[in-house]
């Protein structure tokens, strides 16, 4: 755990519940979830498919309002935080705009924040390098493979160096090597920008490697079943993946799951 | 029950009006209402006209049997090869006038120079062209000869300074708007000597070969209808109003129209017994004007354009 | 929470209606008394005069309006079916499209005035001719919108169909039609009021009943009939609104999955 | 931490070769490329040749009275192409000047109407609570036939070109408003979420998302309007105009001059198709990215 | 390797290349790939993002035609195989039809093959059970989470018991437990139906656990870089994942990757 950090809650959810209602039936996607995420913290959400991870992320980003409960971001409401353009989001699907070429999709948030054109161009080059798509900057999204599209979405979220970075299974469409490399890149960016990251993943190792804390959700209805602190030191290095501590954590979390 | 059986024996005949049902066509409505057609053994359908209806087309197509339109229009269609022939002339005089406000200072057609003169075009403009010619005016350079809609709005707003009007309708519309006759200058085509014949009855020349008897019966009943219409104008207006949708015209207007129409069908000194007769001289004048102003490209073959035969059968 | 009460939705509609009426009345007054333009009442008649006229003729207007609406429905059915058929034909092969498209466009340039005598000449049955003409007026927007819809099925969704070796007809039925429904409804929303126009136009060609008939006659009989004329115009527009609403409601029922109609759950 | 493994695996992130197609490539490659070019040319040629061949066939059958025979028509009802051509040549200068006049009305009215329709869609999307009513109002204007519109517009704008432009404007508004509205609202919810996450203002959501999303629909509307505007202008000229194809057409038909009437129709069709294809070209340029345009 | 099986080639690609051409540039997605897949074989494709796995799958399914090269499926052309409705495909994205409810999306292929309604209904219930979505049968796709949508797509592909099953990263949006469970389900279905499966994945362990052979692709341009036989016996069991053979295979494949 990052010992040096002072605890200032950046994202606070208090007894948040979310119910989706359709014609006849209703789904309780989140039930009474309370979490507090510290400023500059890297937090992962783990949980079975359909347990409410995406819903939780969307509530944090003020894209939907919870049916019950309170949410505070940096002491303000989520809406105020959103209006202050604090968020960068990687959605579960790439959500690229068909009419924009790769490079223009990446500069989209920069355009919205009024970044100068020359600055945008240098930034986009750097980001394309980061996600390995330099040669594809002038392609349209449908000319890319699934994983490549997802990487464009990642580059787009990183482009604005957001204070709060919400990532919904960003690397699930990538091969293990790209994934590991991007894990490290992400940590390096995070340590520089020192933003708060909420990261949804299905990979337990990935969650451990990246996070300060891991929130495990249980399904039906979505509940916060446990919080696991990751006591590995920072900076994390590739060989930590082979350490006994790491293995111990993996099996602990697997057990948590099975207990669900 | 009784009516149904009798109507089975009736011969169906349809007549296409030039325009919407109104007292302009009172004779046919009276004939229908009073059962004159039925007496002749005819089951007549009166088909209303409108801005997009060309009676000559309808008759040529066989969509209807008999048409009402102006003679100039008939000649123009014949010139284009439409197999049509006139069988009766209902209106003896032209109902077309040109009107302008007195305050505009147009005392004679010669003063049209530099003014905007309106007409509905599409076959209605030839008398006006003849009038221009009589006064040495070139419609393309000396004045503005302009399209007039089927409302008189352009006259009221001043868009058109000299407007075309039918004595029985548009002219009455102007009066009804509160403009008195004293404020107007009226140019009458009959007085100017450029009148062309107007409402007539015509048929498809192939159809008539087989249906002379039917045509004669129709014309006979129609003339009877016109005679009663002129005699009892109130009743005629009633017959028209029955055919008119409620709220689409008012009685007062139709009464005025009937009065004016009567003057055209049976002018002063005209024997009502002669209604429907075709006046050779007048027809020739119409055809001559038509040729002169390019309505037709070749002199009309008068013998083929109309026939007295049906009227002769009628009067027998 | 999410749905504003029906009360509020009605309030909006009523505000719209009264807003338009009041502005209209004021403009009418301004034209007549302040600017004193000629034929002010013909340009924009007083609402209260219209209502006065309506009270004496509502029976006629209603029955004639009904005739027109019935005719419009037939024309609409004919036009919409023709439009859908044409769109299917054109989407079925580039070949057919290239062949027919320029002519479909050109056909739209033939004004009904020129068409009517010929149509009467060919079909000879007046009622059928009318339906054909009304259909002709409405088919184009439907065809264009459906064609776009049929073409915009996602490439991956098409691949799914290919992987099943779906017959062309099945591809249409299972994929292209549903994907084209939003487009179809846009087309129908344009076409439905147009069908009213079509019906009225057709009524000018020698009908003895319908809104078009009284519209024309009142116009022709001069400014003294102006209120009645305007009432027919307004009634035409109302029929347009009615037909538009009917399509809107059907759209909601048939395509609840369109993003517009999805309820997102929260207090959005 | 970053250095080592990342660099080692960097090649993994690199992608398949991309080359300028004209620079390299084996002989086989080039033949293949030529083939594709050739195919495209054939495709293009077919686009023009097919309708022309069909057209010629149609005209020949027409001239040979094929349609007259099967529909029992007479030449005075449906004139022969030769007669139409004759009328066309005899009145060429008038027809050309009238075509220009009518096309001007159509284009100006269409641009005005489409812009207004688009604005209505913008308003209805931006303020749905109150703006949606405007959509209905505009749609209802479509139910007012030109015969009624013409006298009213004539009163408001005089007998000149202005009243026809107004007619065309009103006629073309609804198609654009309805289509553009659908395009602006048929947005994928995630795409909207992305905008919200940037705290995009209403204006920005239009600028970056809705406008583009609406383009396929907008072009459909423009194509509908390109044809509707020609009809509107022509029929608008029937009653009050003293110039234009509609005026000439109406007059010709009323005095039985069918060849001249058809000559007007031919001119209108040529102008209309030209107008339409210009819009279609524009669509191809602006919608490169759309599913319907992908190869 | 499954010793008992007779070698009858089901899918044969000979020197297949695929070039995508756009306005100015072209991408060589596949270069000279030759593979022969045996009838009833379970084969995985591994390779970095954008190397051409999806493209290869689409060529096998006759969804695109290769620029050069030959493809034979069960001795016939790919097109004939497709027309014979041999394929079941799970695409990389769920590709559900928005206007169909979950159950109707799953029955889609059955409808196309003319299966009777009663039969369809019992089948769909069973499939929903399999992918754990019983309660969601009457929902529309947009009411599901990302992983749930993917599971619907899987159920849809399994519904028709295809002779050739092509799966493009089917389990990437699932949590590890669902994934492992579905791995086992998939194997059990496969052993019953005995169809040919080509499976794209980014997970090396998953590829090993499932496959008879693993094809490793390399980018630059997409080439078949090596073929790894998996000598683990069938039926595969969960504890095999912990066996030394398994670990040995993992590191062998990882090395193959690094050697690229
Ligand atoms: N329609 C297309 N137009 C142009 N290029 C394309 C097209 N489809 C794919 N490509 C290119 O082909 C290459 C291979 O794509 P493919 O989708 O097969 O990759 P993949 O191995 O499936 O990757 P991933 O694991 O990311 O899904 C990519 O570089 C991509 O840009
Ligand atoms: N718009 C919606 N309408 C109705 N139900 C919804 C909606 N969005 C989500 N749900 C339901 O809420 C639950 C949680 O969904 P959510 O997307 O948060 O899951 P998740 O944890 O992200 O799953 P996955 O890992 O599969 O992405 C699911 O049961 C889903 O069906
Ligand atoms: C389009 C068109 N508008 C007006 C008239 C006017 N008009 C001239 S004579 C007449 C009465 C019937 O004989 C009428 C209404 C027309 N003919 N065509
Ligand atoms: Mg999710
Ligand atoms: Mg792929």
TrEMBL record, chains A, E:
Keyword Cytoplasm in annotation: no
Keywords associated with the record: ATP-binding, Nucleotide-binding, Translocase, Transport
Catalytic activity, as annotated? a quaternary ammonium(out) + ATP + H2O = a quaternary ammonium(in) + ADP + phosphate + H(+)
- GO MF terms held by the record: ABC-type quaternary ammonium compound transporting activity; ATP binding; ATP hydrolysis activity
Please state every residue range assigned to the domain named ABC transporter. 11-244
UniProt KW Mitochondrion keyword: no
> One short Pfam family name for this protein?
ABC_tran
According to its UniProt record, the EC number is 7.6.2.9
What top-level branch of life does the organism fall under? Bacteria
Self-association and partners: The complex is composed of two ATP-binding proteins (OpuCA), two transmembrane proteins (OpuCB and OpuCD) and a solute-binding protein (OpuCC).
The protein here is known as: Carnitine transport ATP-binding protein OpuCA
Q: What is the lineage of its organism?
A: Bacteria, Bacillati, Bacillota, Bacilli, Bacillales
TrEMBL record, chain C:
User: Where is the protein found, in the record's own terms?
Assistant: Cell membrane
GO CC, sorted alphabetically, is: plasma membrane
Q: Name one Pfam family in it.
A: BPD_transp_1
InterPro entries the record matches: MetI-like (IPR000515), MetI-like_sf (IPR035906)
Q: Which UniProt keywords apply?
A: Cell membrane, Membrane, Transmembrane, Transmembrane helix, Transport
Q: Which species does the entry assign this protein to?
A: Evansella cellulosilytica (strain ATCC 21833 / DSM 2522 / FERM P-1141 / JCM 9156 / N-4) (Bacillus cellulosilyticus)
What the entry lists under CDD domains is as follows: TM_PBP2 (cd06261)
| Annotated TM spans | 14-35, 66-89, 101-123, 129-150, 194-216, 228-250
Report the record's Gene Ontology biological process terms: transmembrane transport
Nucleus listed as a keyword: no
Q: What is this protein called?
A: Binding-protein-dependent transport systems inner membrane component
Q: Which family does it belong to?
A: Belongs to the binding-protein-dependent transport system permease family.
- Membrane topology field: Multi-pass membrane protein
User: What start and end residues bound the annotated signal peptide?
Assistant: none
Which top-level group of life is the source organism from? Answer: Bacteria
Question: Which ranges carry the ABC transmembrane type-1 domain?
Answer: 65-251
TrEMBL record, chain D:
Determine if Metal-binding is one of this entry's keywords: no
**How does it sit in the bilayer?**
Multi-pass membrane protein
Domain ABC transmembrane type-1 as annotated: residue spans: 99-283
Places the protein is found: Cell membrane
Parts of the chain that traverse the membrane: 45-62, 107-127, 134-157, 163-181, 217-240, 260-279
Q: Where is the composition biased (Polar residues)?
A: 12-24
**Which intervals of the chain are annotated as region Disordered?**
1-35
| Region forming the signal peptide | none
Entry keyword Signal: no
A single GO BP term for this record reads: transmembrane transport
List the GO cellular component terms. plasma membrane
- In terms of superkingdom, the source organism counts as Bacteria
Keywords attached to this Swiss-Prot or TrEMBL record, sorted alphabetically, are:
Cell membrane, Membrane, Transmembrane, Transmembrane helix, Transport
One family name in Pfam for this protein: BPD_transp_1
Q: Which InterPro entries match?
A: MetI-like, MetI-like_sf
The UniProt entry, under Gene3D superfamilies, shows: MetI-like (1.10.3720.10)
State the similarity comment: Belongs to the binding-protein-dependent transport system permease family.
Q: What is this protein called?
A: Binding-protein-dependent transport systems inner membrane component
Organism (species) = Evansella cellulosilytica (strain ATCC 21833 / DSM 2522 / FERM P-1141 / JCM 9156 / N-4) (Bacillus cellulosilyticus)
